[in-house]
């Protein structure tokens, strides 16, 4: 069973959310969020690894959302956003899409759009509807996996939109540091 219990999934999802928020504030679009790149340290907290696909804006402190854009195809097929799969320009919203896939996988034990081939996976990302075997975090994941990046939660106000979601109700983000 590759699923995380809900309390553990909520904790690790919150930690990854804070990491993405920090990266975005520093002008970095991560572009490679997946479980293999989320390491759990000895103290139980996470750290992200493998930044070779990241997109760096000019080195200055910036507020979310980032305006950095790229047209390159990068990332693991099951985690790429529709705008990447379609060959379009993309920005920080790709991290929120990957975060939705990551959260889905934490709770369901699989990614939502996996196909038998990479091509089928990309077609599913662009065209297939989202299905949920479980109700946990359904609303948050559905808002993260919106195919239009401008309408995706996090695209307008960054991590603040996600932190305010009922999935994280009762969680004190300041204590996760």
Automatic annotation (TrEMBL):
Gene3D superfamilies: Transferase(Phosphotransferase) domain 1. The keyword NADP does not apply. GO terms for biological process: cytoskeleton organization. Its EC number is 2.7.11.1. Residues 1-168 form the Protein kinase domain. It is an enzyme of class 2 (transferase). It catalyses: L-seryl-[protein] + ATP = O-phospho-L-seryl-[protein] + ADP + H(+); L-threonyl-[protein] + ATP = O-phospho-L-threonyl-[protein] + ADP + H(+). One of its GO terms (molecular function) is protein serine/threonine kinase activity. SUPFAM superfamilies: Protein kinase-like (PK-like). InterPro entries: Kinase-like_dom_sf, Prot_kinase_dom, Ser/Thr_kinase_AS. Keywords: ATP-binding, Kinase, Nucleotide-binding, Phosphoprotein, Serine/threonine-protein kinase, Transferase. Belongs to the protein kinase superfamily. AGC Ser/Thr protein kinase family. This is non-specific serine/threonine protein kinase. The gene is BIF2.
């Amino acid at each position: 069973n590759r699923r995380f219990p809900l309390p553990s999934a909520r904790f690790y999802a919150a930690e990854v959310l804070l990491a993405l928020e920090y990266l975005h504030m520093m002008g970095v679009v991560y572009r490679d969020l997946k479980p293999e790149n989320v390491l759990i340290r000895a103290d139980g907290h996470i750290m992200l690894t493998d930044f070779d696909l990241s997109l760096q804006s000019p080195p200055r402190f910036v507020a979310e959302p980032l305006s950095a854009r790229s047209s390159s195809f990068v990332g693991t097929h099951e985690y790429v956003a529709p705008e990447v799969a379609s060959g379009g320009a993309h920005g920080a919203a790709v991290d929120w899409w990957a975060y939705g896939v990551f959260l889905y996988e934490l709770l369901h034990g699989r990614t939502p759009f996996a196909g038998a081939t990479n091509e089928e996976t990309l077609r599913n990302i662009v065209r297939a509807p989202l299905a949920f075997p479980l109700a946990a975090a359904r609303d948050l994941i559905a808002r993260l996996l919106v195919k239009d990046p401008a309408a995706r939660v996090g695209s307008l106000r960054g991590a603040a939109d996600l932190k305010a979601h009922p999935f994280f109700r009762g969680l004190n983000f300041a204590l996760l540091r």
